[in-house]
Design a protein that fits this description.
The chain has about 250 residues and is mainly alpha-helical. About 45% of the residues lie in helices and about 10% in strands. Strands 5-7-6 form a 3-stranded antiparallel sheet. The chain binds zinc ion (2 copies). InterPro entries: Multihaem_cyt_sf.
Length: about 250
């Protein structure tokens, strides 16, 4: 066995390990992060019974991706189940531990965990959990859609001022300005049906700030040749690319 079971890169020198040195390191960091940072943070959110973020209003006919709307409780349950499963693999009795004890059992058994025959699958499952937790722990209004990963088509999100972005899917790093430019090109293929306010909210998800009043003005002045009225009052089918381009001229 010479390829890492996680990143599929050849391992040099060849070892009996399933994961390469890099992946072992990252996997271990994620395990520590889950018990040390994420679970305590999620639990305190749950105790305050706070909803994470605000539900995003999605217009009926928009074809944009679904808003992130996850409850802390689901994330906690999934995280704890992962810890219980791993702890149980170390010793069957550990599976019944509460999450903190399970986590301690795991971090005290680094060698066992990293060399488990299921390590690659466990790592992949943990990555998914960590990603969801991370998204939930970042206030939604601080994240914007930067674009799409040129390598694996995953959605790339980040803060508006991000200089670079790492894909959660394939872990490749990209320069944010180029990703955004490609995204704005692609926005020409995205239509959204709703009021000017809906369109403004949708653009905000991409970090593009425009007021609904300005969109209404553009409509009145006939500047939006790609916007078509619907049978509903004040509702149009907008072309997001056109709105983004006009906004660009407006700056
Ligand atoms: Zn690897
Ligand atoms: Zn990717």
């Amino acid at each position: 066995m010479t390829d890492c079971q996680h990143c599929h890169k050849p391992m040099k020198p060849a070892t009996a390990n399933l994961l390469c040195a890099n992946c072992r390191e990252t996997y271990w960091t994620l395990i520590r992060q889950l018990g040390h940072v994420q679970l305590p943070a999620l639990r305190s959110i749950m105790l305050r019974q706070a909803r994470i973020g605000t539900p995003t209003h999605t217009p009926n006919k928009g074809n944009a991706p679904l808003p992130i709307d996850t409850h802390a409780q689901d994330l906690i349950a999934e995280s704890e189940a992962w810890l219980a499963e791993q702890a149980g693999k170390i010793r069957t009795a550990y599976a019944g531990y509460d999450w903190r004890k399970a986590w301690y059992a795991i971090i005290s058994n680094r060698h066992t965990i990293l060399n488990m025959s299921t390590a690659a699958d466990d790592y992949a499952a943990l990555e998914h959990i960590i990603r969801r937790n991370e998204q939930a722990l970042t206030p939604e209004d601080e994240l914007i859609i930067l674009g799409t990963c040129p390598n694996c088509d995953s959605m790339l999100t980040g803060t508006p001022e991000a200089e670079s972005v790492t894909c959660q899917g394939c872990h490749r790093e990209w320069a944010a300005p180029a990703i955004k430019a490609a995204r704005d090109e692609r926005l020409w293929q995205v239509r959204i049906t709703g009021t000017p306010s809906d369109a403004a909210k949708e653009l905000k998800r991409y970090g593009l700030t425009v007021s609904r009043n300005l969109i209404s003005q553009w409509l009145k002045r006939g500047k939006l040749s790609h916007a078509t009225p619907t049978e509903h009052k004040r509702q149009y089918t907008f072309n997001l690319g056109e709105l983004a381009a006009l906004l660009d001229c407006h700056r």
